[in-house]
Specification:
By secondary structure, the chain is of the alpha/beta class. The chain has 15 helices and four strands. The protein folds into two domains: 203 residues, no CATH class; 67 residues. The two termini are 25 Å apart.
Length: 281
């Protein structure tokens, strides 16, 4: 997807629209993010989760700022290439996304808002102590110590100070977008970032598989197990019931009907269990 991403960014900067349309074969979805630091974080989390976004037909596009979204929506939305669009935006920039998407006949479904931005979400998820440890591992402890001794920084909270430090050097946001994601426990991923990647998962129309919330997949699996716990012992009791055999020892309608109903229940349990496992993984 690198070629497509480069073509889209070049088009937004004034290149011929044909250059962006040409390499769109295989494109399934686009994630619009504000900058390269957001792109780095999204792509790094995908790798940590075992995802290959290129193979999935997903292109993460840094727009160079939220004010550029209208141009990208014009090209990629219903009046252009007509591919599904999701997005990650800062809380303060949500209005730009809303106006561009409404203008194109779309809504905010699939747009995930960071508070105040992705760096802030990552710092809050990790905590200042862990972030300072990451800074040390990046060899920037001295730079951070000098920064936080500045008069303007002394009264700020640790989170606010770290957040401002990320933006004081060209390329630093991109650098920390990657390494802060590496430091995350995968159970503590900020919701906007995790939800964005979840939305980008291939769905039934792309893979032939149904996409269900994890909770529903677990309900299906538990239902299947419950059926296998309940029905076989019940069948044993039915077989021992005096109504199951006539005077000659032959199976009665009572036994046959119960056996058929239990067999159907177990067959359905197998189907439900398989569906739960497939949608879970």
């Amino acid at each position: 997807m690198t070629h497509l991403r480069e073509a889209l960014v070049a088009w937004a900067a004034g290149a011929d629209v044909a250059a962006a349309r040409e390499p769109s074969s295989g494109l399934r979805a686009v994630a619009l993010v504000e900058g390269v630091s957001d792109q780095a974080a999204v792509e790094r989390l995908a790798v940590r989760r075992g995802r290959d976004l290129d193979a999935e037909g997903v292109c993460v596009v840094p727009m160079g700022g939220a004010t550029n979204i209208r141009r990208f929506v014009d090209l990629l939305g219903p009046h252009g290439l007509d591919v599904p669009i999701v997005g990650l935006c800062d809380r303060a920039e949500l209005g730009f996304f809303e106006r561009a998407l409404v203008r194109a006949g779309m809504g905010l479904d699939g747009i995930f808002v960071c508070d105040p931005d992705l760096e802030g979400e990552l710092i809050r998820a990790l905590g200042p102590t862990v972030v300072e440890r990451v800074i040390a591992l990046e060899g920037e402890s001295r730079a951070y110590d000098i920064f936080r001794q500045q008069p303007a920084q002394r009264e700020r909270s640790a989170e606010d100070r770290l957040h401002r430090f990320m933006g004081t050097h060209s390329g630093r946001k991109e650098q920390y977008g990657r390494v802060l994601v590496d430091a995350l426990d995968l159970d503590d991923v900020p919701s906007p970032l995790g939800d964005l990647l979840d939305r980008l998962r291939p769905r039934d129309r792309d893979t032939g598989c149904m996409d269900l919330p994890v909770a529903w997949s677990l309900v299906l699996i538990v239902t299947a197990v419950w059926n296998f716990v309940i029905w076989p012992p019940f069948l044993k009791r039915v077989r021992k019931d005096e109504r199951s055999r006539d005077a000659a020892g032959n199976a009665t309608t009572f036994l046959r009907v119960h056996t058929i109903l239990i067999a159907i229940s177990l067959a359905l349990a197998v189907a439900v269990g398989v569906l739960g496992i497939v949608t879970l993984f």
